[in-house]
Amino acid sequence: MRRLALVISAVVIGCSLFALAHEYPAVIFSQLETGDMIVRLAEGPAFAPVALPMTWTGQKEVLEACIQLQASLLISLQPSDIKNNVLRGCDDFAMRATIWTPTFAMGYLVQAQTANEFDDDSASNAALTRSRAFAPLEGWQALRRVDLGMQRQDRLDPAARNALDQDLSFLMGTTFGLAAIAQHYVANPDHRAWIEAKIAALPNNALNRFLSDLRQAAKPKQPVPGNP
Fold it and tell me: What are phi and psi of 115, to 5 degrees?
């Protein structure tokens, strides 16, 4: 019995070390600054700098980091080969995560962002639709989907357009969503027609709140004292 207990303990320790070896690099990666993430992913898939974590929490941290990285100004300024390697690296994380957990909405959001960058309409539409289906009430993901969908309104298929329309309805039913959509409205004149169609259906209290948010968003930014 004592020998069996030792064997079981050794197996448990071995499994724990194996899990730690997968989780630790991912945790470190997700905490890196944007520039350091780019460096880690820039050498392409063959470099394989980070194994996909085994836990949902670990995968979530990596995918959240990728979502922010893909949308960052810094990645948009990179040479195309570096940018493409970073996008594909994040897309590979997302693909593996959604194979393990087919309802992992964040993985589909990463895929939608990648497909959008590579002008793959079919993949982008499918990923946007799936992302919304599995995370209809995640406000920050809904905002990101709306931003992506608005950029390519004329290329949305009916399912993706319906998903984005539902995202807009959800966001306009929340205080933070109204404020965010008001900012989007001011910053993106080409996107206003779709938003205006949704505004027309708002109840009076929500409409008044949106108009207040709109006035606030349209105010000129005040210079910071001491800055030129």
Answer: -60, -35
- Cα distance between the two ends of the chain: 77
What domains are defined for the chain? 32-156 (1.25.40), 172-216 (no CATH)
Which amino acid, one-letter code, is at 208?
A: N
| Token code pair at residue 105 | 């909405």
Closest CA to 88 of 30, 138, 61, 49: 49
- AA letter at 23: E
Copy the structure tokens of residue 84: 């493409």
Per-residue pLDDT of the chain (228 residues), as tens digits, is 555 444 344 333 433 433 444 444 555 555 555 556 665 666 655 444 556 666 777 788 888 888 988 888 888 888 888 888 888 888 988 998 999 899 999 999 999 999 999 999 999 999 999 999 999 999 999 999 999 999 999 999 999 999 999 999 999 999 999 999 999 999 999 999 999 999 988 999 999 999 999 999 988 766 545 554
pTM (predicted TM-score): 0.80
